[in-house]
Write a structure and sequence with these properties.
The chain has 304 residues and is an alpha/beta fold. It contains eleven helices and 13 strands. A hairpin with a 5-residue loop joins strand 6 and strand 7. It is globular and about 50 Å long. The two termini are 29 Å apart.
Length: 304
């Protein structure tokens, strides 16, 4: 196995509205759709489409949305032997409002995935130990991620954490993280610094807490790769026609993990991750435009 993902899963309920809704206001949507989502699942799919052999550790409900997850993972060639189907529980749901221009607001109910715990990671120890990369989002319980990252560190497996949605993280988890992939807002929230502080300095505050490399995603402005003891590298953005930005950060994390699992150096992996994220915003929903490795390499070739 190349990549193991602690996979949050939810069905995305997506409504397209012209602008954010005010408190107490009702606004007509121009479009509605239901699709697969969850930051961990999205990252797993992104990694698989980049050519990685991927396994997920997850907990889903025994319902139609849970069956949607299994169908997606099987279709994408993702190993599901460490997926628990929880009888009598609902799968997660994300209610997503997409505005004109592609920005979005999201409310997530974790459902069965909220009970993913250390025992699930421990049951998958052999799979984690044999992997090249283990990744997780902040949508799964921190205790599960800690258990998985402890196992990974003991076996020399690279750990990648996407700290979204933003919430405080314990120092132990930060110290077990080889690569952190926050957006600018998540980064500043983690370190308690405002917009007056350069992202490089905010990232270095995480280095002081034990975190390894920080790849800060900057939307249309690309990304910034900040490694301990090395000058930051700014990766330029790509000019794309944006359908929506749902899943862009997850695509970045998944593509980064896949590239590292192939043995690519960090600079090359970051270029590919940035390009994959750019391509992902050209389609509606989280995974419709997640690119293949060939498309990603073609776009990244002009950005080195």
């Amino acid at each position: 196995m190349d990549v193991v993902c602690l996979a949050s899963w939810n069905a995305d309920l997506i409504s397209r509205v012209p602008r954010p809704i005010a408190r107490g206001e009702t606004l007509l949507a121009s479009q509605f759709e239901i699709g697969p989502g969850g930051k961990g699942s999205n990252a797993a799919v992104a990694a698989a489409r980049q050519g990685a052999k991927v396994a997920v550790i997850a907990r889903i409900g025994d319902d139609d949305f849970g069956r949607m997850a299994l169908a997606l993972w099987h279709r994408e060639g993702i190993d599901t032997k460490h997926v628990e189907v929880a009888a009598g529980e609902r799968s997660g749901v994300a209610q997503i409002l997409v505005y004109e221009g592609g920005d979005n607001s999201i409310a997530v109910y974790l459902g069965a995935g909220g009970r993913l715990g250390p025992s699930h990671a421990q049951a998958a120890e052999a799979t984690i130990a044999a992997a090249r990369v283990v990744m997780a989002p902040n949508e799964v319980p921190i205790e599960a991620t800690l258990a998985a990252f402890r196992i990974a560190r003991a076996h020399g497996v690279t750990t990648v954490l996407n700290p979204a949605p933003a919430r405080p993280l314990p120092d132990e988890l930060l110290a077990l993280t080889d690569l952190l992939t926050p957006n600018e807002g998540e980064l500043r929230g983690l370190v308690g610094m405002d917009d007056s502080v350069p992202v490089e300095d905010a990232a270095r505050a995480l280095h002081a807490r034990g975190t390894g490399t920080v790849l800060v995603t900057l939307g249309e402005h690309g990304a910034c790769l900040v490694r301990p003891g090395t000058a930051p590298r700014h990766i330029p953005g790509h000019r794309m026609t944006v359908a929506d930005t749902v899943g862009a950060g997850d695509t970045c994390t998944g593509a980064l993990a896949a590239a590292l699992a192939r043995g690519l150096d960090l600079d090359t992996a970051a270029l590919l991750a940035n390009a994959a994220a750019a391509l992902s915003v050209t389609g509606a929903g989280a995974i419709s435009a997640m690119p293949s490795l060939a498309r990603t390499e073609a776009l990244a070739a002009g950005s080195g």
